[in-house]
Amino acid sequence: MINVEGEIIEARIPGQAISRLSRVSDYFCLIKPEVTFLVLIATSLGCYMAAQGALSLWTLFHAVLGTALVAGGTATLNHYIERDLDGRMRRTAQRPLPSGRLSPREVLNFGIALSVLGGAYLAVFVNLLTSVLGLLTLLSYLLVYTPLKRKTSWATFIGAFPGAAPVLMGWTAVRNSAGLEAWTLYALLFAWQFPHFLAIAWMYKEDYARAGMLMLPQRDPDGNRAFLAILGTSLTLIPLSLVPTILGMTGSFYFCVALILSLSLLFFALRASVLRSRLQAKVLLHVTVIYLPLIYAMMVLDKA
């Protein structure tokens, strides 16, 4: 039946559907899906490398889901804490909070719910150690790293500690302990973060400066210290990436491929350090994003 009322209803339905989809998209944006995806890759790698024999798929499922909840909660609460700063930067001004599409109360409640649920889920379905590691990671990221970004460029170094925790959580999910092998995987992820995040900092240095975030060393406009850190940690990744073979976690296949990948990363780090352009920093960023999953894939293939 077509009438005026019916036409109004028909006109409203698409708009309502779009509005619901938009809100779902905004909530999904809060968990920083690209970052969370890398977190879950690291967690899965930790689980697989820790398994002595066949990895239990249920253990993997519970570890990944619980870690995803904690990581999503951490990212959401980070959005809440930095909402005013995000509004000052061009690349983040259209996020759900600074743009006004979601209210601070909605974001805070969502972040707390994810965090509490994630911690409880890990404690019940995985083990207490992994849950404690997850919650310590959340607290150190939000209460130490996040405020330090406005006080010192050393925040990047401090933030790398919780940043490398997911691979450790994957390991403890399987073994309920962390030995030398686990800390080797942790060290690899710890060092990887510096060329990755400092490349981002160089790309968006004006944006960060506008928001008062000290992602790069002060009184270093030419980036000498930042690129020295990029080169140093990229160089460190070469021996770190080979330690799994030395410890018997992987074989010669992984050793050779890891050496090639790490030398390639060093090449792009050196190139970015020499040219110091936004384009080369972007290239280095893409290289780091490719490097980590490939290193992990080689570990899995060689262990398999």
Layout: helices, strands, pairs:
Elements: H1 4-30, H2 33-50, H3 57-81, H4 83-86, H5 104-125, H6 128-148, H7 155-163, H8 165-175, H9 180-203, H10 205-211, H11 224-246, H12 252-275, H13 278-303
Description:
This protein has 304 residues and is mostly helical. It folds into two domains: 12-178, Orthogonal Bundle (Tetracycline Repressor, domain 2); 179-304, Four Helix Bundle (Hemerythrin (Met), subunit A), CATH 1.20.120. 79% of the residues lie in helices and 0% in strands. The protein has 13 helices and no strands. The chain has helices at residues 4-30, 33-50, 57-81, 83-86, 104-125, 128-148, 155-163, 165-175, 180-203, 205-211, 224-246, 252-275, 278-303. Helix 2 (33-50) runs parallel beside helix 13. It is globular. The relative contact order is 0.10. The model is unreliable at 1-13 (pLDDT under 50).
